[in-house]
Structures
1.
Amino acid sequence: MNYRNPTLLGIAASAILTVLVIAGSRNLEYFDPALFGYTIASIVALGAIVFRYALWLQRPATRAYFWRGLDLFFKRDRIGKNAASAAGTIATNLIEQRFISKRSFTRWAMHFLIMWGCILSALVTFPLVWGWVHFKLEGDRGYRAYLFGFSTVVLDGRSVLAWIQFHALDFTAVMVLAGCAIAIHRRLTDRGAIASQTFLLDFTPHMLLIAVSVSGLMLTASSLWFAGYMYSFISLSHQALVIMTLFYLPFGKLFHIVQRPASIGVELYQQRSREMEQAVCPRCGTMFSGQLWIDDLKKVVDQLGFDYRMGDGHTLQDYCPRCKRLLRGHAYASLAEKSEPVFYGDRMKMHDERFR
Ligand code: HEM
Ligand code: HEM
């Protein structure tokens, strides 16, 4: 594993964000020093996420599919078509999350509420924290919003739209809480989930998200109904919980937020491989997958240290899925006839002798 490039990339990402914070807040003029903790934590967390992502990309399988996906995407004659199919994958898998709705509606609702609750919260909070957005009073009841220091629209402070904007984080907190409630209910009642889950991996993310959302809602309650009672303590708690969640991002289950979208490349590769030269199964003669896909798979399997060579000069990956299952079945059947342990290559040789 090479740590040098991931470390450099992580440091570069943190440095770029630092420059953007300084530039976007107009040389820190609109930066709120009370939010310094959030800013430092987000800069460090971004560096850690990029570091971990770069390490992950070094693994044989990820490396092969990631670079092949990019390579296929930027094929000059196909870039328009590829952009259209990538947009389709983004719409159905990333935005609509159709692959989760296939599991069940409640699982889809759970994830939709958590994901969009978090994305919308991030869209509201990060630009404010980094000083990229600030507001100035204009007239009796108007607020002018500034983005990156550039003037944008004036908002009527007493309009419905303004009320929704001021309470955006309260709505997103309720979304996250509802999603986490569904997830925890499933994890406490579903036998399959109970059998495989662990506290650290499967409950910590919900605990953190619930704590962040509840402490956020307590801020609203404190200022709206309790005349600011304990506000600064709750505010510090919210900050501490957000920082813990940000630092958990690169190392825990929530890393899938950045990991999963890479599947767009794999999907593109799957689509394109149907149009490529096809691999032919040496046993039944079926064309079952793109030859390039099979060659990449063989390289990955080889780099992982597995030896699937067979007696006939092929490797197991050369066979179509149906024949692979048959070969395996025959190998197991012949294994039962032998008393001493038989290794994979030998089992295949036995199969070959039998069925040639
Ligand atoms: C802000 C963004 C996101 C957040 C906060 C988030 C959060 C979560 C959480 C907390 C879980 C665990 C639920 C549980 O089973 O108890 C989960 C599961 C999952 N996430 Fe995400 N996620 C995000 C984005 C994504 C994206 C972009 C994808 C894929 C494109 C994705 C795919 C999945 C899948 C497949 C599961 C398993 C769902 C299931 O059990 O049916 N997530 N996510
Ligand atoms: C799941 C994600 C989050 C939820 C649901 C959430 C929720 C909330 C809520 C409901 C409030 C109170 C708003 C009000 O007073 O009307 C709040 C305040 C705040 N949040 Fe969050 N938040 C989240 C994540 C974040 C993140 C990632 C950051 C920083 C990067 C952040 C920074 C802040 C700040 C600076 C305040 C104002 C605190 C103060 O007045 O002291 N939040 N949040």
2.
Amino acid sequence: MSNDVVIRTDRLTKRFGPLSVFEEVSLEVKKSEVMAIIGPSGAGKSTFIRCLNYLHPFNQGKLDILGHTILGGKHHLPREELRDIRTRVGMVFQTFNLFPHLNVLENITLAPVEVKRVARANANERAMELLEMVGLSAKAKMYPKRLSGGEQQRVAICRALAMEPEVMLFDEPTSMLDPELVGDVLAAIRRLASDGMTMILVTHEMQFAKDVADTVVIMADHGVVETGPAREVLESPRTERAQSFLHRVLHPEEANDLIDAKMAPIGGRQ
Ligand SMILES: Nc1ncnc2c1ncn2[C@@H]1O[C@H](COP(=O)(O)OP(=O)(O)O)[C@@H](O)[C@H]1O
Ligand SMILES: [Mg+2]
């Protein structure tokens, strides 16, 4: 494997009991690359990125991540290996999951202090730098419930970054936010991308994906239906499945027309 490949999956297959979530997904992310994963709800996007830091075991295939090689069918990894992956891969979820009983600064410094044994003063200093970066240094002493969703999500990003991860995984980080709060969170992610962070981002923000991602992956129907350079995939998808998905996302107002068309008598509307 060439040195600059950070994550590679080779025919990764995941089932939940009888349910096949995805089959034979083979992808590669190089250092400083941004990969956006898009696709309809239920396509297995969340499950896929959770397999990458082993929040879910997978059934078949092979995962190479940050120098570790993991084969499908295993249910437990050695504790040290799991710990190494989890500390080097940061993850941000749809729901921010901040600790409600800790203030912003404490949320961000908890893992560095407890897991990495960073000195408290250094952890605080780094946390303040991160908060500064996302425009929240004034909120360091506030508790999560006093913050807006967009602010909480930016704190969650800082919390992940405080572990100095080498890869960041984002699972629809803006989909729970009111539209006017999305921009600040996207700006923080854009900033990370331009600083060279390697990342995989599940998102519905097509324009953002086009601007920020190097590659786009479309997941649907139990696997990857199309992948390639972001602009190519989003502007001129080759497969019919990708075309129909993108059409529906980009023209939601036509959803009713589609239903009408389906219900129209065969041979077209009279
Ligand atoms: N822990 C689980 N146990 C059983 N089925 C699950 C679990 N998590 C997700 N699924 C199922 O796997 C499929 C893919 O889900 P998910 O990865 O959340 O899709 P997406 O993120 O693309 O919307 C769905 O059918 C979902 O119901
Ligand atoms: Mg999901």
